[in-house]
Fold this sequence. Notes:
single chain, alpha+beta, 5-stranded mixed β-sheet, 1 helix, 36% strand, globular, binds zinc ion, HNH endonuclease
Amino acid sequence: MAKKDRRTPQQAFVTLRDMPGTRVMFWVVDTCPYCGERHLHVAGNIRSDPGESLGEHPAPCQPDRTYELALPPQPKKKGGKDARRKARRDAKTDAWDEDTW
Ligand SMILES: [Zn+2]
């Protein structure tokens, strides 16, 4: 088994949330790979592409470590390219409508 490099950023899966009443969007790390807690990262506003703010970020709980914000793998669905595109759009809409945090 390969030895884990301490400096290799762990992947942190995120969901996109908006803040009610604002145009600000957040990436929510539901389970931090280091501490298991939830962290928020500003993803930009509604007019910018939130995907641009994915990638490596300092972990709020570990000042000398980073993690890589990544979208969770989408469940595989039957169908071709169009179905996949629709699934992605649906997933995004769900995240925006969710109001549980
Ligand atoms: Zn953490």
